[in-house]
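Much of our argument rests on the idea that a fold can be written as discrete symbols. In the encoding step, the backbone of a single protein was reduced to a row of integers, each denoting a local shape. We regard such an encoding as a compact summary of how the chain folds. The record that follows shows the chain in one-letter code together with its fold in token form:
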Amino acid sequence: MLSPSKLPRSKTSGLTQAPTPALHPRAVAVWVTVRMATLAIAPLLPSCGQPSEPITVVDGSSAFPTMDATHRRDASGPAFDASVQDDAASESLDAAQSPDAPDARAPPPDAAPWLDAATGLDAGGDPDVGGAVDAGACAPLPDPMGGASTVDLFAQIGAASVVNSAWEPLPNYTATGSTDYEHGGYGLGQSSDQFADGTHAGPRTFYLLPPSNPSDFIKIFFPSQSLAPAAAYVFSSKIGIRHVPGSTALGVSVHVVVSADPDVAGEPSWVELAQYSLAKTDTRQLEVPLGLWPLRANFKLAIQISCVGNNYYDVVLLDGASLRPVQPRAALGVNQPNLMWDSGGVPVMQRRVDQMASVGAMQLRLALRGVGVMSPTLAIIKRANERGMKVLLNVLHEAEDFVDPLGATANGGAEFNALCGWPNGNFRLSAVDLPRYRARLTAYVDAIRAQGLTVDAYEIGNEYDWVCFNGDIPLTGGAPDQSFNATAARYAEILRASYEIIHRPGDCRPPAVVTFGPANTIHFRPSNSIDPVRFFTYLRNVNGVDYLARYADVIGEHIYSSEATNTADLRAAAQAVPAGKPFWVTEWGVPLSAASTGYPRYAAMKAVLSLMSSLPDVRIENSFLYAFEDAQWGVYDTSRDTPLFEARIFSDYRVPAR
């Protein structure tokens, strides 16, 4: 799912290249054209053609940055200035010993006392060290849907505005008894109404009769709706034609469109969400995701129907039209992985958190690095807690996790630098020493608990599906089965060890354990990547145990590519993991460039969030924008101490963190 190039973040020079994203097409109008069969219409109506009113189309290209496989880099890796000083820990990092580079640090502290260093099991041999917890001891969680309920549009049709292409009101035949069928209208359905496939319409059906003029249509505006912002909605309805014997109908074209009070100059007034062609024998269940539109003020829904070919006397039946909440909407957070290395020290680190909160960010994804930077990391978590922000710690591997850090490092050199953005390679995941890893993670978890701090989730690793973050994958020749088996087997052990450390006995609701977010570079760097679905499949059966079901609470994902690629990858992942397992998109972003600042970039961000709100078959609970302060990816200008225009995405996306 990666497309843009994330270059290494330097403390002085920042990022050096920004690909230009294109905006995704979002069409603009809702149409529906129908003819009537339940009414006794004597005269033969003229044939009905295509509508004359054009559907406005928003600038169409891609809402996502163009794929660039040359210099893609996550700033959570080993690319730091020489001699960056950590004020709290007094740990000096030089170019040869960056946070990810091999070093010769002191032996790690003792592992968790209740875990056997060789197996990771507790004294009784039970890997589920957390044990059973009395659910009654936990305070009830708030409703993740925010009190959302289904809105019955049938009940509101009387208050709706029904017009033709000249914006002339069309009659409700049921209420007025009008016989002026030539200009179109609508009415309540009857129990005898049947769809063309022979099924009967339900009690909450209305019919739509378009005007007889071939260039005309019928358009229905439903009243403005106020919907729960925490829920993702779909427009739902059964639709089909009631065919009249002897008619020459070829079918209808149905358009579903939405609108709202424009909140940003340049935004379109109407956007088309879906278009369907119905033959005269078709009956279809519409399920149209509404994306971000329900979050806007004065949200409106409209339907327009136009005839195709010579069509007369046929009525379109709309049965059970409603706005239905389908799942909680993903809450929005922000990435600032290496904040603990800010050259200004802890006061500046805490000020960054204040700035994130000031623009409306409710969640922070922060890297969990070596024990040498524990003090500033804890200070950042504390400030995030004070500002009401939830915290996701991304657990990255450090030199102290390896018996021989230098021997565990692979792929360094000019070719690696050209691809990944730093020269010293990265650790082989298969070489992680589990007791050392357990000791480091335990030290952090213990310190967080001792200070009374709250971490809501731990993401175990980062983008291990490609060469830049996993030295087990060679720069050339792909990842042979032996390398894959070794790296996947060790990750399974790391995931299990992490779960056992994080899920402590007596915890009411322990922090969530999130799998690493894959980069999905398999699409454009197949020789340097592993298919994430292959990773998921392996973890479903490790010596007969489903590690994803047992040792992961959430599945991580990163999305940076085209909408079609992201949709396919998310759905493929959802098919590969245990049913119902939620996803967190722990990285997504739109790069900053001269051609994509301000409203265009903001619109592209909204398109990504809209996609995540439009996949009812993939449960996405949280998403984290990459990044807050960054020369290529940021939304905050620290040199001027002011947010960029695009930072309004946090305040506009009014979804509470859960």
Notes: Residues 1-136 have pLDDT under 50 and may be disordered. The longest strand covers residues 315-328.
